[in-house]
Amino acid sequence: MRRVPPPLISVALAVMLVAAWKAWTVWFHVSDLLVPPPESVGRGLLALATKPSTAHHAAVTLYEIVAGFLAALAAGLVVGTALGRSPQLQRTLNPFLVALQVTPKIALVPILIVWLGFGAGTKIVTAAIFAFLPLVTGTIAGVRAVDPNHRDLLLSLRARRWAAFRMLELPSALPSILTGMEVGIVLATVGALVGEYLGGEEGLGYLAVQALNQLDVAGLFALIALLCLLGYVLFAAVTALRAWLIPWHHSVRAIDPSVEAAA
Asked: What is the largest CA-CA distance in the chain?
């Protein structure tokens, strides 16, 4: 197994799952209204790919996810840095952060629709709310990962604040920040889709609601597959950013042996 490339194993597992899916629908005579067979979902994907409006809706969803994620990243870095440097401030604000995270996000969407309407703003804010706390906690952990002895050494060498940040604080904090980004991009995807489900006029989530209203179960499964692909691509982009920014970190070397070999 160690000699087989992991991508080939992943493809083999995917083929096995599709085969089991097909066998289950045939052997147990599962209705297409409950679980359509794989070939029906494949035809649904082909129909989506050939429909001109699909690209527009996918672009809308992608914009909402990325905009919400970037907004959450900016806010999370500022708040996380402040809380990481001031434990007393964190103890003061921690109950509010926890309350924000445990509040059912779906319940906030109608309020955001009242405030912002049915446009992209509601979905962007929803995505940002979903992704905010992982980015804050990742930044806090990263800021506190700085070795105090290293910081004292730079201060004794009279290093400027920007030099200390660039050479010590940022490299030490990046692994935790990027971990928060990996979680945050996934949650931002979920948040944008929740907003589209509940109050969208365009986007892949809106298409899913349309397929549900038309009882097009195969089309709904195809849209779910497309959404999974979009989320995976975004997650892979953040993972690639990790490998580019911190190739020296053990978390990158554990995932990509080629980095270890190059080192």
From this structure: 75
